[in-house]
Design goal:
Length: 80
Amino acid sequence: MVGTIALYDYDKYCGRLPTICCITPEYGKENFYKLLKSEIEKIKNYYPDAKYTGVSDGVADNWTFLENHTSNQTLDFFHA
């Protein structure tokens, strides 16, 4: 599984900042969700006032995970 956290700041940096990539090669989502949750918490501590949007495919448990960590969610372009 692969997940990314992409940061944007149009006011100060005029666009996209570095991206954090989370990869877990083993089968199952438990370790992936643990790693991604840890990275999200670090970012939220650093940018507490940022807007957080989750983007995913249509898999139900991905939406459940994102609802706990983002204020809104959207289906990615490819799956739409």
